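Agenda item 2: nicotinamide-adenine-dinucleotide complex prediction
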Amino acid sequence: MSTTEQRVAVVTGAARGIGAATAVRLAREGRAVAVLDLDESACKDTVEQITAAGGRAVAIGADVSDEAQVEAAVARVERELGAPTILVNNAGVLRDNLLFKMSANDWDTVLNVHLRGAFLMARAVQKHMVDAGFGRIVNLSSSSALGNRGQINYSAAKAGMQGLTKTLAIELGKFGVTANAVAPGFIATDMTAATAERVGMGFEDFQKAAASQIPVQRVGTPADVANAIAFFTGEAAGFVSGQVMYVAGGPLN
Ligand code: NAD
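Presented output:
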């Protein structure tokens, strides 16, 4: 890469929440950013935040669990921004329920978005990383990877993200590519707001209850997670690979 060439990042699920904060943060680090989410028009706010600050970004509509859409999306990123060498697999959904009430569809949806999505995106982007002799992959895991009542689908997917990350690190290391996982605890986003609603609590009370169980006595913000992702995607992080970093305001393992 010449000193003037800008690295291109793809952030999935970047219309809002942790993905949006990450896209904005990576743009601030000097990356051109593909803001990818299910609905292209929903990516507009994130793209505007980046371009208003002088950055380069493009909105891409794609379902990460759909093979053809992923291939087309990555081809579009290459055409419109350049070959992507940074990938943040952040897109996610919840379909919580206790085991005896969980449908096979809800199992499939969650496994497909998180695991199949991360696999398809990594497979589509790796050739650009290999060609460049440089790559940074960050996968969103979760504290739920350690087990969480009502989340048999999600905890399996998020534990799976850790295995996927370690194998990416092993297979792609010799091409200058690192892969790491960031595993957030409670982060205040639409996702946790929806959980509060599902359990019949106001979001404020839900956050207060969560904060009381967290050593630093507060819930996390999307920026807290974006900070960790910025570290792993940085030029200087080339000797850190296959790791899982919990961003949870206290120790988890
Ligand atoms: P969010 O629901 O606010 O945002 C998720 C985004 O992913 C949405 O914009 C959604 O449209 C997009 N998305 C969903 N399915 C998609 C698909 N098939 N293709 C493309 N985009 C899709 O969630 P968030 O809280 O910002 O979470 C982001 C990531 O962090 C998720 O992987 C989530 O599991 C993980 N995480 C969140 C928390 C938390 O407390 N919020 C904790 C641990 C892990």
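Discussion summary: The longest strand covers residues 177-184.
Owner for follow-up: CH.
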